[in-house]
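lol ok so funny story. i was supposed to be doing the assay writeup but got distracted and ended up predicting the structure for this chain instead. priorities right. anyway since i did it might as well share w the group, maybe its usefull for someone
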Amino acid sequence: MTHGQAQIADYIINHPSTFCFLSVQELAAEAKVSHATVIRFCKTLGYAGFSDFSRDAQYIMKFEITVANRFGLEQTPDKGADNSPVNLFGRALRMEADSIAGVARNISMENVEECLDMMEHAESIYILARMSSFPIALHFENTLSKVSFKSTLVPEQTLQAAAILKRMNENSLLFSIAYARYAKDTVTYTDLAKRKGARIVAVTNSLASPLVALSDVSFIIPSPPFSFIDIFAGAFSFTSALSIAFSAYSKQDKNDSLSEFARIMAEGDHVIE
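and the output, tada:
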């Protein structure tokens, strides 16, 4: 390595848990080298550019950093970084917004069209997730159920999940949602549904996800790690947008579903006027 590239390597060695979250300009500034030196450093390691290097580094760190470690990173200010509560608040909001913008830029509309077609022709739609990904599935089922009678959330209880999986067949569609670290149950249940003939749509964070090989259509929506939480804004927005799109795509009278939803909510006395 050149002297400048060695400076970058030294910075990475001394900041193993945080360097991968810096932009190319930030890494250059921290290592006291030029922007071009950072690019050459990445190419020396065999990457096409900084984006590929950073993506790989972040993916690896998702497995290496525990929740407690990530919380500790935010409690130990790095040199030159503003880790005040207000600044962290702003950074978190910007990362949420960037995550949503990334979905809009990168999602394949051809995959969306194929997914909507599978949803329309499926007799039943199941939504599966575990661990930190479960709130995404819960949100998706909540939005989709307002415009469709087909959707069912696969519950977390093993016995109830098994009863639902038993009903799956070639006329079923399973949305399988998993982010690293991937829940074993999600992968196992997805594989079982695949073997029963169900179509699979994966919502996950990487092409290296075990769900990709099992899916008919995959949507890669990365979740940039931040402190002790994961940024799932992109995945939540994707499922909301897909529900809205399906309401227009589906030939089912969505007014019937919406009316039924409103009637049940009213009868259940869930709303205070």
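The chain has two domains: 1-64, 106-143+152-249. The radius of gyration is 22 Å.
back to the writeup now i swear
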